[in-house]
Amino acid sequence: MFSGALADRFGAKGLILGGLLVRSVGFVSLAWADSFALLMLSGLLAGLGGALFESPKSAAVTALSDEATRRRVFALQGTLGNVGMALGVLAGGLLIRASFDAVAVAAGLCYVVCYGITALLLPPVRVSSGERGLLEGIGMALRDRRFVGFTAVSMGYFMLWVQLSLSIALQAERLAGTSTAVSWVFLLNTVISVGLQYPLVRALEGRLSPLRALVLGTVVMSTGLGLIALAGSIAALLACVAVFALGVVILSPHQQVVMAELADPRALGSYMGFGWLGLAVGGALGNLAGGVLLDWGRASGLEALPWLVFAAVGYLSALGLVLFERAAGSAASR
């Protein structure tokens, strides 16, 4: 959140570049982390670097796009991000055969390359207007009831979003009897994300508003999770993962578009930083709830319970978005 406020005060480009360098140092230092303390310090640096550039990056993308192109820009950003993650997993799998040090150094060098590209191609974009105190933009976001409400609702679907790497992965391993099944889940998710995100966003343009597309994505994602309650084989689970991934493909860029449209252009960095609290809090709650519900369900013999709870949370989030839209429409008509 505070990196966004810093971007408002000092500009987004410097924060993005600084974050990329700090993250690079964090990953490279993992190669020399020969104690738990150094390992934690390296992880802290890598996390701090990501926190430094994430909100300024979103603010910069928002500032450099307009209402007509924003959906496509965020969809393309998501597609390229998924391509990068897929290539990263592939490269990491090859490099780990040499050593973990090779993986750590290669990851750090990737961020150095990103630093060079960003330094050359990203213009010195302003993400705020006028001069204001460092915390003034955060105060604006906190007083903005619509934005705070949207951020609160977003926690619900972010709770579901993180289940791919937790509950779904554990369920895949249980049903298939091998940890290799986890890679099948991630491969399917990557193929759908890379292949369908941009075309689907283009197809929905002119048919659904960004907020309604977000509702649709939330419902589809929740349905995919709920159907896992009926999945008795790895093939059935993968079919549910496909539905889940389709929902995420619709949801992800439209969530960012809605957040951008609700943000006050006078303090885009602060608003984006505050808005990503939905992921931070919702993701943390999802990780906690996912593990607890899975253990509870298996211990009590109610193995469908976690998936039904996840679906209910998602449908409630979708309902919250519908109510949010109606409240915004009522306010606009006054």
UniProtKB/TrEMBL annotation:
Subcellular location: Cell membrane
Main location per the UniProt record: membrane
Pfam families attached to this UniProt entry: MFS_1
InterPro entries linked to this entry: MFS, MFS_dom, MFS_trans_sf, MFS_Transporters
Keywords, comma-separated and alphabetical: Cell membrane, Membrane, Transmembrane, Transmembrane helix, Transport
Alphabetized GO MF terms: transmembrane transporter activity
Keyword flag Transmembrane: yes
Database matches in SUPFAM superfamilies: MFS general substrate transporter (SSF103473)
Major facilitator superfamily (MFS) profile domain residues: 1-329
UniProt keyword Signal, yes or no: no
Gene Ontology CC annotations of this record: plasma membrane
Transmembrane segments: 36-53, 74-96, 102-122, 147-169, 181-201, 213-230, 236-253, 274-293, 305-324
Membrane topology: Multi-pass membrane protein
Protein's name in the database: Multidrug resistance protein MdtH
Source organism: Calidithermus terrae
Record gene name: mdtH_2
